Amino acid sequence: MSKKFSNILIGGILAAGLAGCQKGATSSDAAQSSPPPTASSKFVGTWKHVASGSESNATLTFNSDGTMSFTASNGPKLQPYSEKGIGKWDANGNQLSMTPLSIEIQTPSPATTAKLMPYVKKQEKVRSSAPVIWKGNDEFVVTRDKADQDFQRVK
Fold first, then answer.
1. What does the alpha-carbon distance between residue 97 and residue 89 come to, in Å, rounded to a whole number?
2. What is the predicted pLDDT for the residue at 113?
3. Which of 10, 36, 109, 135 could share a disulfide with 20, CB 3.0–4.6 Å?
4. What is the pLDDT of residue 17?
């Protein structure tokens, strides 16, 4: 798998971006987490990844009970795919942690999908954490692999 596609795929997981390639604390034990966030947490809600000129489309939804869901898609100029998943999340101050528990991916080619599945499955139950910088109440930025991932609240 090309490095560029790998970054796009994992960017989709952060939307789905923290999971997978994120450097930071990781654990294969999804049960290791902080207590679930409260409903007043700034993260609760749906967030859209914002990237000018990008063909990628990604959303994250953080629920007040510590569960999350995500979707991502890409293409057609880049290798097209769509993915969706569920997981757990928590936040401690401005530190955001996510653990994808289940990820599904589809590509136009069943052979490509089959080739990607082992890589995708390795991302499941891997906890990843990163600091965020808030830009008001409705936007935050995560830096991953020296690249900013900008998310805006969906209203």
1. 6
2. 92
3. 10
4. 41
